[in-house]
Amino acid sequence: MLRGFRARTLSDRVRVSLCNDLIGDARRLDQQLASNQADIDSLLDEHGTRLRTIDGVGPVLAGRLIGRTGPATRFATASAYATYNGTAPIEIASADHQVHRLSRYGDRQLNAAIHTIAMVQVRMPGSAGRAYYDRRLAGGASPRAAMRCLKRQLSNVLWRIMVADDTRRHRRETESCSAT
């Protein structure tokens, strides 16, 4: 579009120059993002994680989950991991009324990554997360409560996969050490 535009005034020439600079910046940033994604993909392949098999988890979110969690085996249970990432509900009780709310504690960036995965799964009609969300809604839960339950469910699944990945990687390392 800029190629067909004829700058007649000085202000038009400045605008065209600024637009060309912005287009160059956008192309450079796209190349950097592609390079970063390729680097993350190779690191995840080297790490041997299966997190990318979950609907809604791409290379960037998988890298963020691994980076923010560290070794998943440091958490004794899925509940301990849920408390760490802030998806374990907190009971707010008053007289006869009991309500569960999301914790405001825990690793907020890890919680945001899990929330992103939950949102993607809810938007995907054939995903397991959407089926779980629909079952909770059919059971009488509010949309917020169903999302909270889905996030906790995802936290459990993520923890199990990361622990299995850590165990498999440790087993491979010990086998390679004993073979040499």
Mind explaining what this structure looks like?
- The chain has six helices and two strands; from the N terminus they run H-H-H-E-E-H-H-H.
- It has 180 residues and is mostly helical.
- The radius of gyration is 23 Å and the shape is flat.
- A two-stranded antiparallel sheet has the order 1-2.
- Strand 1 (89-94) and strand 2 form a beta hairpin.
- Helices cover 67% and strands 7% of the residues.
- It has helices at residues 10-47, 59-69, 78-85, 108-123, 128-138, 143-179; strands spanning 89-94, 97-102.
Brief synopsis:
The protein contains six helices and two strands, in the order H-H-H-E-E-H-H-H. By secondary structure, it is mainly alpha-helical. Helix 3 packs across helix 6 and helix 4 crosses helix 5.
Give keywords.
single chain, 180 residues, mainly alpha, two-stranded antiparallel sheet, 2 strands, flat
Distance between the termini: 63 Å
The helicity comes to 55-70%
Main-sheet strand order equals 1-2
| Mean residue pLDDT | 89
Question: Whole-number radius of gyration?
Answer: 23 Å
Give the total of beta strands: 2
Tell me about the largest β-sheet: 2 strands, antiparallel
Number of DSSP helical runs:
6
Shape: flat
| Structural class by secondary-structure content | mainly alpha
Order of helices and strands: HHHEEHHH
Low-confidence stretches: none
Range of strand content: 5-15%
